[in-house]
Specification:
207 residues; alpha+beta; Ctag/Cox11 (Pfam 04442); 2 domains; 5-stranded mixed β-sheet; 1 helix; elongated
Length: 207
């Protein structure tokens, strides 16, 4: 009897240990899956934002608008520099009034105020958020690494248009002002391809 009881206890202990191992294995697999999902969610989230304009994400256009309306909207330009970047950045012209569908050009000027070369880049968004899906950029410096030497300044153009379809959107057609904002931050590990920026040039008259 004693041997039978001991055998049963050993079998129960072995079964319990097996269950613990299975639970541990599934937990480890679940953690790994969550980690992979976290990495995958970044590009997926970016694609989602670009398609929907969520959180003020602008659109990338491959060609100008085929339609230009007489109705206008004002676009304001804004820039923020993170504390770790010794640059000053400001729009050459604070705002423009443009027609829906009209291709327009804006300029930002960045200056390295430090005594060493610095590589920086910028992210962007527009407000109000619901205008993101209608704000189309044809050319932009965003997400491009810029290397500025000590005291160097550069002019960075943004070519854009506001989609005429916005006037048909009952949630956005009442909006008369869009703010295009850039946030500049340092690049700790610049790409090998990050080349020195071209010298600043004067923006064309009329902005």
């Amino acid at each position: 009897m004693a041997d039978t009881a001991t055998s049963q206890r050993e079998e129960a202990a072995a079964a319990l240990a097996g269950r613990h191992r299975r639970v541990g294995t599934w937990a480890a697999l679940g953690a790994a899956a969550m980690l992979l999902l976290a990495f995958a969610s970044v590009p997926l989230y970016r694609i989602f934002c670009q398609v929907t304009g969520f959180a003020g994400t602008t659109q990338k256009a491959v060609k100008p608008s085929d339609i230009i309306l007489d109705r206008t909207i004002t676009v304001r330009f804004d820039a923020t520099v993170s504390p770790g970047l010794a640059w000053t950045v400001e729009p050459i012209i604070a705002q423009q009034t443009v027609r829906f569908g009209e291709t327009s050009l804006a300029h930002y000027r960045a200056t390295n105020t430090s005594n060493k070369a610095i590589v920086g880049t910028a992210s962007f968004n527009v407000t109000p958020d619901q205008t993101g899906v209608y704000f189309n950029k044809l050319a932009c410096f965003c997400f491009t690494e810029q290397r500025l030497e000590p005291g160097q300044s550069i002019d960075m153009p943004v070519q854009f248009f506001v989609d005429p379809e916005m006037v048909k959107d009952r949630d956005a057609r009442h909006i008369g002002l869009i703010t295009l904002s850039y946030t500049f931050f340092p690049v700790d590990q610049p790409k090998v391809s990050a080349a020195p920026a071209s010298p600043a040039t004067a923006p064309p008259k009329g902005g």
